[in-house]
Design brief:
Blueprint (H helix, E strand, L loop, with lengths): L8 H5 L21 H27 L5 E8 L5 H7 L9 E5 L5 H4 L5 H5 L7 E5 L8 H4 L5 H20 L2 E9 L2 H13 L10 H5 L3 H15 L6 E5 L3 H18 L11 H10 L1
Parallel strand pairs: 1-3, 1-4, 2-3, 4-5
The structure holds adenosine monophosphate and magnesium ion (MG).
Adenosine monophosphate (AMP) binds next to helix 6.
């Protein structure tokens, strides 16, 4: 735990019992410091994260089947892409399994909603990152009635069973929901429309989705209530301050990796003997 965090990020951010309606999206739970300190710390902790992830990767290369999967959810502009760039961007890309889930393709639509998810799961030793996930099938699918209610209602339990299976197979799930305020989203969408280098992030539909904000809040509340389990808890991150959200995810990942209690894999050779051989060569 870094000096600025007086309690583990996991404890400060765990969603148990949280009401989204009461959430202050500009808060910085668990962090004691200002923006400048937070940004400095982000660089420092990014290096720590990279070291922990390298150990996971090294163990994977030696046959360890364990993995860590970061699941990112949040409304448009909540900062999912920024987490991928800045947090995951600080680690060795060889050890990262990244997948982004958009509107299902024709092929994906022919399958069960978990089909495309299963195909993207991290291999042993990998840090998996899901930019959106199986949760879209109880978020956008519920809000827009893409499937009948009895279908999406059944998915909550299905997701719990699926996640139980992942955990039993050695995957640590770090499920993060990023929340910005409706006003902050407006400011971020405005920026996307005013900067040519940000047009690519904008879809006209993003504006229409704003009308569904309360329905999304309810759908998010439901996943926290129904899919926040002991083995795969949800973490809620107020995300109006991008630096804070990035720092919080960095800490959650460091804590998850440290929990695996990884050490550097033992050599399959005798280093001293090999050194002697090398010197003679
Ligand atoms: P973006 O993350 O901005 O690239 O947008 C991806 C879009 O895909 C969002 O509008 C999501 O709501 C949508 N999407 C993701 N998963 C699903 C799904 N299972 N069903 C329908 N739409 C989805
Ligand atoms: Mg988008």
């Amino acid at each position: 735990m870094a000096e600025y965090w007086k309690e583990p990020a996991r404890r400060a951010l765990r969603a148990d019992g949280l009401r989204i309606a009461d959430l202050d999206t500009s808060a910085r739970p668990g962090f004691h410091g200002d923006k400048a300190g937070g940004k400095r710390l982000l660089v420092e902790r990014g290096r720590v994260l990279a070291g922990e992830q390298e150990k996971l990767y090294a163990n994977g290369r030696s046959g360890d089947r364990r993995s860590v999967l970061l699941v990112l959810q949040g409304m448009d502009t909540a900062g999912k892409g920024g987490i991928v760039r800045h947090v995951i961007g600080s680690v060795d890309p060889q050890g990262v399994d990244h997948a982004a889930f958009g509107v299902p393709t024709e092929e994906e639509k022919q399958h069960h909603f978990l089909w495309r998810i299963r195909r993207a799961l991290p291999r042993g030793g990998q840090l998996g990152v899901f930019d959106r996930s199986h949760y879209e099938d109880v978020l956008v699918a519920r809000v827009h009635g893409l499937v009948p209610e009895e279908v999406w209602q059944g998915r909550y339990e299905e997701i719990n069973r699926f996640e139980r299976e992942l955990v039993d197979n050695g995957t640590t799930l770090v499920k993060v929901a990023l929340f910005v305020s409706l006003d902050e989203q407006k400011a971020r969408l405005r920026e996307r429309l005013q900067r040519p280098d940000k047009y690519w992030k904008f879809s006209p539909g993003d504006i229409d989705e704003r009308a569904y904000w309360p329905a999304y809040q309810d759908a998010y509340q439901a996943i926290l209530d129904r899919n926040g389990t002991e083995y795969a808890p949800w973490y809620v991150i107020p995300a109006d301050a991008k630096w804070y959200a990035r720092l919080a995810v960095t800490e959650l990942l460091i804590e998850a990796l440290r929990d695996l209690d990884l050490s550097w894999p033992a050599p399959t050779f005798d280093p001293a003997a090999e050194l002697r051989r090398l010197e003679r060569s």
